[in-house]
Amino acid sequence: MNTAQLIDKLKSFNKEGGDSVILYRLPFTDKKVLQLGNAMSITKFDNKVLSNDGFIIHPFNSSFYSSIRVDQLVHYTYQGTLSGHVSELILPIFDMNLKDDKCISTSFEEYQQQFEKMFHALSEEGLNKIILSRLKATDSFEVNNVIDFFDELCTLYAHAFVYAIVTPQTGVWIGAGPELLLGKTADQLQTVSLAGTLPNMPESEWSKKELVEQKMVTDYMKEVLEASGIDGYKTKGPYTVEAGQVKHLRTDFSFTADKVKGEISDLLMKLHPTPAVCGLPKQQALEVIAEVESNRREYYAGFLGPVNNSDFSFFVNIRCLKLTQSHAALYLGGGLTRGSELKKEWEETELKGQTLLSVLKNVANLQGYE
Length: 370
Ligand SMILES: C=C(O[C@H]1C=CC=C(C(=O)O)[C@@H]1O)C(=O)O
Fold this sequence. Notes:
GO terms for molecular function: isochorismate synthase activity. The chain has 370 residues and is an alpha+beta fold. The protein is 31% helix and 33% strand.
């Protein structure tokens, strides 16, 4: 499809009241995708969802928010940036669907109280790991900056799944996430365990704390794979991956689709939410998070990604922000274990925030974001 044909399609999409725009770029490629379609709530997340072309946006906790599928009326791949004319046709859809939620930053004192409650559950109630997240809200920025923001994230973070999306149900979300939840190419499936964070500097070296945290997540992934009948999966790692201003420990798992006993959608639902965003044991961590955190997470720590020709790439939605009429709200989380210290955890989330904040300041020229 050339630009003139795309513009014709966009005009009829707008005329017919099309409601959703998806921009994304998979890790380690310079191919970007613009997808337009209409968003619908998914009532049952089964294998059918994984066989129709579209884009999935799944919340952290589906008891509170719906899983959304955007169908694929327009699918355009490109490199570089979109033409001014194309941008003019898609930006009003972002504008129209900006939510007016008020987003309030989590203060250090609030974070401390939440940390202490979670720490109590770790030391007294048999929890082994839990993710505490907080909100950091800046002033909002002009929707006109969304495409520049997306392009800049693509340039800076080759390792990440970079996206900017809008649907009437979710509002506007932008992110650059380093964590693959589940990917399928032909008959090959891949997942990863990602855990342990340090500043991305040569002098910061992995200690026992991060190695134990990584092993906990890796053991959980193995349990889930084995419970789905998958044997003979290949593993690689743990190895270090850079993710902007931080680095993580990562282990890869790969296996063929025929090894999965039952539906692949069931495997996906068992993996989500991984201990990288929820905790261990999973159900207990989910309950403590719902009780302790003051933000509802929404689509943060959920997963999202494209489905094409029965292949898919779903990434955990971290290092992301929700853009509202009044704020850009960054969601910042970190894993707590019994060895965690309050100040270090807070600082870790500050560093994770730099992925988006540095771009926010450059592209949207935002100052003073406390
Ligand atoms: C939950 C987040 O990061 C997760 C992914 C990698 C390492 C993490 C950690 O070391 O705490 C987190 O589990 C986030 O960035 O909001």
